[in-house]
Amino acid sequence: MKRLIAVMACFTMPAAVAFYVALAPFGGALSPLDAGAERISAALGQSNVIPALLVLGLVLALVAAFALRRREDHTGGEGEPGAPPAWTPEPLPTSGNLATAPEPEAHPDARIANLRRRAFSGSQAPAEAAPLPEAPAPFPVSPFPASPFPEQAQALPAPVILVRKPRERTRDWFADSSWLGGLPRLGGMAWPRGTDGLPLPFIAQIDLVELAFACPDTPLPRTGSLAFFLGAGAVVPVPEGAHDFTDPPHDLAPAFEEGGYPFPATVNRLTRWFFPFWPVQLLALDLPETLRDYHDTLREAAIEQAMAVQLDRHAPLRDHPFYAAGVGAPVEALWWHSVIHLADQLHEALAACARPLAAHRAALDQKRAAFEQLRRDPQAGPDALEHAQEAADYLADELGAMEEQSAALPEMVEALDQFVAGRDPWQQLEPAELDIVADILAEVHERFGELVRYHAPGSLAQLATLSLRAMVSGPPETFAALPDDVLARINRDYRLPPVDQHQMFGLPASRLGARSHPRSDLLLLQLGYDDMMEWCWSEAGLYQFWISAEDAAAGNWNAATLTFESD
After folding, report:
1. What CA dihedral angle connects 361, 362, 365 and 369, to 10 degrees?
2. Which secondary structure element, helix H or strand E, spans residue 548, and what is its range?
3. Model pLDDT, residue 278
């Protein structure tokens, strides 16, 4: 088709000129063209000009057709430029480990139980006494060149992704042995504290037997578990055995604010003491040997692509937070938990309204002082004085409106408290009640916009989203309120974080500082932004635990370090 268009264009242009020459002169605005047509006729002769132009068109059309044919023969397709072959991951065999790997919830399963029995069968060397199942078939070899460090690549463990498990109505959510958030099971080990003496926030616990089953080439011990803590960073080894959840220290700081950020500096109505509890499946990605060596910076893009392809076959990748309703879609269900949250947010706005008022008064004083200084300046022009006066008047009007809002806000808070008093948080609102809440939220933003800007959610959808996130990871009585269709959507589409994966071993996520860390160290654990976990640090934020291979093999967990990276 492109060749035909080019041939027609080459013929049409001389033909159009011939047509114009034959009918010229036209006069008027076309007089300059008439002069050109007259010169062409004089040069070629009146009787020869039209045949000559048509022959020229045929010649140009033949030349274009021949040139395009040569180009297609060279590139192998019409309009496709030649390009060097790019590496693309080959499909995994259907019998590979991704298709057959058991779910971590199958702990009572004989295979993992057998690993535990063999680990304590009388040998003093756990690594020798716990032979692991035969490693699954490797990922098919890609055309990527061989690693320049083959021995090093063979010694590196496969990357292990921590995939949040789907929540099920009939399964004990809190019986798993690898999880994120919640409380640890320390089995008598002390809760670690920072240099300031305060307890560190718990973030995850990983069963090392489960890890060994998922990743047979793990460089870590094969018994017990590791509990991870943020803050100054700590890794606590927990001995093998059945342990209850550890009671938190009395001076533990809150983990996050509902609807806000992690690690709040003060305690208020919205602070929550623990992150949501969420069991995880440990999924080892079987990369080909040519892509196991993440020390080679030239292979990073290929490794990332191979990891994404394998992971997407197990759980869908996502690039956006969970939301109760799509953009522009109406909210059809709301729970009293959402309205109680709105009331709590208004209480916090009322308690904090002194700060914006004080800031506006200070700004108004500065504007008035600047105006007085200009008024005493004999060189100040009338325009400058007028501008300074207008700026001061604008701030004065804004401050007056905020003072009126501050005086009226307590009445609104009291009315909302009475509205939610005695309500079951997990009972759904009736349609009429939903309409009332919609009107209240609109009035809150219209009347008290300056005071509630950083407190009240902007829409019903935001309120509903908070409640649904609390339901899916909550205790049984809370979980029971979650609609089945929402549960199915979360289990299908939201088991992975939206930016960087929760991961052990392998190539760390791409950050300026993260990949400048010594490449000889193991990525012991990586945790990214995850709205479903209430880990709402910056979306580019990345916690990473590191340890040398020697310290990991020796169980020297005090040598582990924690870094936080963000763009």
Report:
1. -170
2. strand 542-548
3. 98
